[in-house]
Specification:
Blueprint (H helix, E strand, L loop, with lengths): L1 E7 L4 E8 L5 E9 L4 H7 L4 H20 L4 E6 L1 H5 L4 H11 L4 E2 L2 H15 L7 E6 L4 E6 L4 E7 L3 H8 L6 H25 L3 E5 L1 H15 L10 E3 H12 L3 H4 L13 H14 L4 E4 L4 H17 L6 H12 L5 H16 L1 H4 L4 H12 L11 H10 L8 H12 L11 H4 L3 H19 L8 E9 L2 E8 L6 H16 L2 E8 L7
Length: 515
């Protein structure tokens, strides 16, 4: 199987194309890289610049054409910090999807850290060692802690070479500016450093072009020649600090005299160097191991680890397969989502005589329950909005546009503000569709609340009527702590739509072992 992975970074856009054999061997067929510097404008204006967008469109189209020529079976794409933060991210992602059919996933910094660690543990022999991975990009720096078979911690810091360049420029740094750069690194890394130190990693591994270039410059100076591969090579913190101090006293043009620094990296490599040096100093680590592993390698490995689960769906309908595949793409679809789906179906059935919605809406509600949290893959705080975007741009097979719209709207309104006419996309829906969204989103909120602690305590629900009150019984094997309280808080949303009061009670069902 041939897989192409494209990494749309804040500094560079990369692609790797590999051949994955059935026995687990992965062979690189081709690589490509263009330093577009998408973050150069974003970290000043919060928007992707026109010139950078034009360069990116050309490069991405060329990469997809190359992948097609090389007979790639799958083309995967991820976008990171600059695109995450750009107000006009759609100006890049939408034309890319429309012209190539490839949907780029906006991934969170924490997910970026996980994927990088996944790649590193295949490139560096960790065994039982707990390693810290540092990846310095254009807009963010990722920290990931784990062993050869386990990922423990991921953190994303708003520290990157293009982000710092937007503040400090590309020229020489005065002593005052160096102090300011180091202070900014310490401030933004403080919380993550505390978490990492508690885990006591025994090895620190550096990835990304900035780190590899700095390390290679040191190794060339020490050995008098360029190395063909620098994976697993080691450099000291003292040597890194000496090099970074030297680079900080140079103009951009002067930095080009140091091999292997390239023109497109010379503008900000000294700033990335201070990020690395300060992190090593704060962690009290004297040595750095360099790896040539990358985010795109992690994207490939992650896809391969999921592919078996993704294809074992022959008994599912086209729509079920599409939803399952989308959920797996964004690390969802586990037992918690299945339980929330069950509660959503139960709530739909017990309120059917009140809402009088078509039976097919129960399936749309179930799909929304499976997908409600996929936006967390991008960002937790706005995950409902990210989830809507991901669903509306996923081209779900078997769905009419109206059905996909409703599922997206339910995910959009599964939390935070309720549907309101001040929301442009909701306001544009036909009146009947707006009613369906209001009712179904109210049911979804209650279903999610019934697993408020993510403990799966409430296994099923039943209901009986007492006049206009619906008494819902949560059947549990232990007393629910927060679930009924959370569900009761969401119930007024449904009452506003249907005039039905809901009360919640628990029935703890003992097992034979408890008797």
């Amino acid at each position: 199987m041939r897989i192409a992975a494209i990494d749309i970074g804040s500094n560079s856009v990369h692609m790797v194309l590999v051949e994955a054999s059935g026995d687990g061997v992965i062979t690189t067929i081709d690589r490509a890289k263009d330093m577009i510097k998408l973050g150069a404008d974003v970290f000043k204006t919060q928007e992707l610049g026109k010139d950078a967008l034009e360069r990116a469109h050309r490069v991405l189209k060329r990469y997809v054409d190359l992948a097609d020529q090389l007979r790639a079976d799958e083309i995967l794409a991820v976008a990171t910090s600059a695109v995450r933060e750009a107000k006009n991210a759609g100006d890049l992602l939408d034309p890319f999807r429309e012209s190539t059919g490839v949907t780029a996933q906006l991934i969170s910094g924490e997910e970026e850290a996980r994927l990088i660690q996944l790649a590193v543990r295949r490139a560096i022999e960790l065994r039982r060692e707990r390693g810290l991975v540092i990846d310095i990009g254009g807009g963010s720096t990722e920290l990931a802690v784990g062993t050869a078979d386990r990922y423990t911690l991921g953190a994303s810091l708003k520290l990157g070479v293009q982000r710092l360049k937007a503040t400090f420029g590309d020229g020489e740094l005065s002593k005052k500016q160096v102090k300011a750069v180091r202070g900014q690194v310490r401030e933004r890394a403080q919380a993550a450093i505390a978490q990492v130190r508690d885990l006591k990693p025994s090895i620190v591994i550096g990835t990304s072009g900035t780190i590899r270039t700095l390390a290679e410059a040191i190794l060339i100076e020490q050995r008098g020649k360029r190395l063909q591969h620098i994976n697993a090579e080691k450099v000291s913190q003292n040597d890194l600090r000496a090099l970074v101090e030297k680079l900080s006293t140079m103009s951009m043009k002067q930095r080009l005299s140091i091999e292997p620094i390239e023109e497109k990296r010379a503008d900000a490599i000294h700033l990335g160097g201070w990020i690395l040096v300060e992190l090593l100093h704060a962690l009290e680590q004297d040595e750095l191991t360099v790896s040539d592993a990358s985010l795109r390698d992690g994207v490939v490995l992650d896809f391969l680890s999921r592919s078996d689960a993704a294809v074992r769906q022959s008994s599912l309908s086209v729509r079920e397969r599409a939803v399952r595949h989308l959920a797996l793409q964004y690390d969802r679809g586990g037992p918690q989502d299945a339980l929330i789906e069950r509660h959503a179906r139960e709530l739909f059935a017990m309120t059917a005589r009140d809402h009088l919605l078509p039976v097919g809406d129960c399936e749309l509600l179930a799909f929304a329950a499976q997908l409600h949290a996929i936006g967390r893959y991008v960002d937790f705080k706005r995950n409902h909005k990210h989830g809507y975007y991901l669903i509306r741009h996923a081209r779900l097979r078997g769905f009419t546009d109206d059905d996909a719209t409703i599922v997206g709207q339910l995910v959009r309104y599964h939390r935070k503000s309720r549907p309101a006419k001040r929301h442009k996309r909701y306001r544009r829906l036909p009146k009947a569709m707006r009613r369906r969204v209001r009712i179904l989103s109210a049911l979804l909120r209650i279903a999610i609340a019934l697993d408020r602690g993510a403990t799966q305590v409430v296994q099923r629900i039943t209901a009986k009527r007492d006049g206009k009150t619906l008494i819902v019984t949560a059947h549990c094997q232990q007393p629910p702590a927060n679930e009924l309280w959370a569900a009761a808080r969401r119930a007024p949303f449904l009452k506003d739509e249907l005039g039905v009061d809901m009360k919640f009670e628990a029935e703890v069902e003992t097992t034979a072992a408890d008797d």
